[in-house]
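S.,

Sequence below, as promised.
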Amino acid sequence: RFRFPLELHLVHYAKEFENLKQALEHPGGVAVFAVLFDLSPDDDEEFEPLVNIIDRLKDKVDQPVNLTNFAVKHFIPRNVAGYYRYEGSLTTPECDEGVTWTVFTNTIPISKEQVKVFDEMRTEDHKILKQNYRSLQSLNERKLYLKRSPVRENYINSASTYKINTSHLYSMVIFSTLYSFKSLFTL
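The prediction came back faster than expected:
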């Protein structure tokens, strides 16, 4: 099976709840945006500030991190119009159910050198944090939805200059969802 070199989960809970634990008690109270990374020959410059912070802190535990020069937009693909959505669970114990997952179909580029920094991260007991993913789970009769990314330009034929422009409506829906949830990150 194919695995991406890196996957990032942005965990959010609905603003009417005080905390994640309370939100997990209500179906739809928690949303996770999953971002997949694809290998690139070049470093992703926008992602570099996070890579630098992790590299500096890789052997330290429970250190506060200041991300003042790092915007949330660096965590998500430039085009978020295509995605998978399903009701699932958290990937870490207790693996609570009732989580709405959105997995973007477009990826963020990352170089082997940048991935290496993540591969050298350590756990609280100073063990290398590698292969920290949950095994593939069955659908258990869940529905998996795919929202395809619209084609930006669709030429009628090769000689024509007529283009069909697509709307950014779907991107706005995703971002309005993003901002209606409290982030677990303090950015």
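The chain has one domain: 6-183.

Coffee later?
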